[in-house]
Amino acid sequence: MPKAPTVKIISTTLPEAFHPGWNKLPGFTATGRSITIHPATFFYKYDNPAPEWLICDWVGVRDRLLPARETGETTVEQMALDYVRAHARTTHDAAEVLRIAWEVYSFLFRESHLADPALQRMGVEPRHLRVLREMACVMALNRVETNGAISNVNPSWLFGIAAKVVYDLSEEEATSVDELYHGTWFNEPRRIEQVLAHAALGGRLVHGCQSSIYVNMAGGAILPFGADVARFQADLARFKDDWVEKIEACANK
User: Fold this and answer.
1) Rounded to an integer, what is the distance from CA 108 to the centroid of its chain?
2) Of the four, 42, 88, 112, 233, which is 20 to 30 A from 212 by CA?
3) Could you tell me where the DSSP H helices lie in the chain?
């Protein structure tokens, strides 16, 4: 009988310290810039015990893809897909995925954007960008297969609920940050940035809350290009309430 794959502990050091509130979530240890994740306890669903990610080196994406401009013949989505086809490689190293994700989200949620009068009117501050960067970084470890099945999912998927617990946000502030994540942040120039930047993580960002059957804070995930979105939404509808309850139960820890 084949031996079951060993579920490896994930450990890495990132350029900036994670908020200590991450320690409220079972299976996650944040000590300064070092984070350690025990998948068996951190993930709510771990159907793929030996996940494989498609990634592109961030420096290449930054220097070669981000300066690209859409034309009448080629959309930014096509540019991202073509780049992934030409430059992607597979990895089983979750720590490497986290490090690349940190670069992606440090770029997307950078403080220079706070000069935007629209974001200023919303009261967006550097501390909100920290929430966006950290949550999105950990979210990169979630897995959706090409057929749309959700295989691996951790609390960061439910972005707003998890942010409320980790950062002790009020309901109003958690809703506001979640709104930034799933819609308001991405005006057209920033939407183009996120399409191109996510090529480093081998796919595109899809928000589960962008459907009438979901309430806010349903979060999202990075899906492979070509993934079955209908299957993805059906899976999320089945599991979401259970995941939300588990995250909320961590609030008082």
Assistant:
1) 12
2) 42
3) 39-42, 58-60, 76-87, 94-108, 117-121, 126-139, 159-166, 171-179, 188-197, 229-248
**Tokens 């946000």 — which residue?**
169
CA distance 141 to 156: 9
Please write the tens of the pLDDT for every residue from 166-202: 999 998 898 888 888 877 788 899 999 999 999 999 9
The rounded distance, in Å, linking the Cα atoms of 128 and 130 is: 5
Contacts of 169 (CB under 8 A, 6+ apart): 131, 163, 177
Amino acid type, 249:
A
Name which of 224, 218, 174, 181 is nearest 199 in CA terms: 224
pLDDT digits (tens, 9 = 90+) for 132-146: 999 999 999 999 999
State the pTM of this model. 0.92
Report how far residue 21's alpha carbon sits from residue 242's, in angstroms, rounded to the nearest whole number: 22
State the CB neighbour count (10 A cutoff) for residue 70: 14
